[in-house]
Amino acid sequence: MIEARALLCTTFVGLGLSNALTPAAHALCLSTDTSKDTSNVTTNITTNAAPRARPNIIVILADDLGWGDLSVQGNQAFKTPAVDRLATEGTRFTQGYQAASTCTPTRAALLTGRFPAELQLFSPLVENGRNAALGNAERLNPDVPTIADILQRAGYETVHIGKWHLTVGATAETPLPYGFDRARWVDLREGERDLATLPERPTNSATLVDTAIEEIDRAQATKSPFYMQLWLSDPHAPVAPSEQQRAPFRRNVPEGITAPDELYAAAVTELDRQIGRFLNALDARKITENTLVLFTSDNGPATAAMAPVRWSAAGSAGPFRGGKRSLYEGGIRAPFIARWPNVVPAGVVDRESVICGLDLAPTLAALVDGVEVDPATRAAWDGVDFSAALRGANDARDPSSKAREPRARPLFWEWRYPIEGPVFWKSPMLAVRDGDWKYLWNPDGSREELFNLAADPSELRESSAQHPEVTARLRAMLRAWYEPLSKDGTRAEAGRLPGVP
Ligand SMILES: [Ca+2]
């Protein structure tokens, strides 16, 4: 039987027919190791039979891009036509989140579908042996199944490009044990080059996009659908755009003076231009129709209060309070746009669905035909499947979808260190969102705040006293989540407001 399965799968995949397999046949293939056999059989048989269920998947992740940095989300300072194009051709979710307010924990959740605090990843990993002092594990536990593992097993070519930040002392090989067939520019290094250095910054996004296009051509030659993470590093500070990139934004700055917002505008404009080039490359290869593109950012904008990045940190969280590291909305709410022509409704703004990067694994596993997830992995997921929302369940233009589907599970966040930035950014150290309510709390009881995000998305009207029952319920929920977590690395200043000197 094993041999028969292997033969069936090898034959289908070898003929370039993997896209045409029925779910049952896929399931059969998945139980062998041969579903990725890509022997060099050339054929004229096309894969039009059922392409919808096996889309290519591209996750474009910007680094520290604020919710308010997109012109489609109200930015007046500069334009982002390429990302806006994704919104025009797909659905823009205004209530998209990440599972954390900084890089490493957010990325761990994107890959695993689990709360990063439960994986003992609380803050960005550092390479100088200070992870234990911060309470962090040294790396994302490679035994925890990732969405790349799952899609790889389902016959996808899996590729990581760019910033990674889930292991320490990264080498070009590090993402491979996490379910990737290929990894390029891991943590921005390849060979002797380091794209994080200032001389590389002006062309950093261009280089990553060049690589992504190259990798798409390579993946396409295998005849398998692909899963690609294009984890860019713009506009993480410090950015260093070229004179030419800066020129359009110099108009308000006297000669010889440099303004952070001028540098930032130039960097995001270049990021957007490169995303546009990437989308055009998908068009030129005629794979736009069968490709799900997700665009998001890993956390809110950095603060100019941090000296090393002060000269170029100028992102905007739009209407939201807070930024990177803060658990107010500006730190955790992210741009979230999905495009998959004829499946994800085009030109829709979904203001109802509360979705999170944490949901990526359950959602992609549900969207793709032929994916098998073992029950233990499924049970461990903290995220929910939002594939119905991707298909337009909360499209307000469709009268049949008016019934609002509340998010099935709450979202939890924690940040156990000080928060740099304006006092207005300094949130308590834990937060939960359930329905429209958001509750923030210090576990020693020193602060608690309740906001109704539907009425008060900017978190300006603290209302715990007016809603004692909601407050008590959310406090109990948050305490139960927090209790089993490691407390290592927690700083005394966590969740505190500064005192009067
Ligand atoms: Ca980041």
The span between the termini is 76 Å
Radius of gyration: 22 Å
Q: Given the helix and strand composition, which structural class is it?
A: alpha/beta
Q: Which compounds are bound in this model?
A: calcium ion
Q: What is the element string, with H for helices and E for strands? A: HHEHEEHHEEEEHEHHEHEEEHHHEEEEH
Characterize the biggest β-sheet.
8 strands, mixed
Helical amount:
25-40%
Describe the protein in words.
- With 501 residues, this protein is an alpha/beta fold.
- It is built from 13 helices and 16 strands.
- The strands form four sheets. Strands 5-4-8-1-9-10-2-11 form an eight-stranded mixed beta sheet, with helices on both faces. It has a four-stranded antiparallel beta sheet with strand order 13-14-15-16, with helices on one face.
- A hairpin with a 6-residue loop joins strand 15 (437-441) and strand 16 (448-452).
- Helix 1 (2-14) crosses helix 2, helix 3 (81-89) crosses helix 8 and helix 6 (204-221) packs parallel to helix 8.
- The chain is globular and about 60 Å long.
- Mean pLDDT is 88; it is low at 1-51.
- The structure holds calcium ion.
- The site of calcium ion (CA) has 6 residues, from loops.
- Calcium ion binds next to loops.
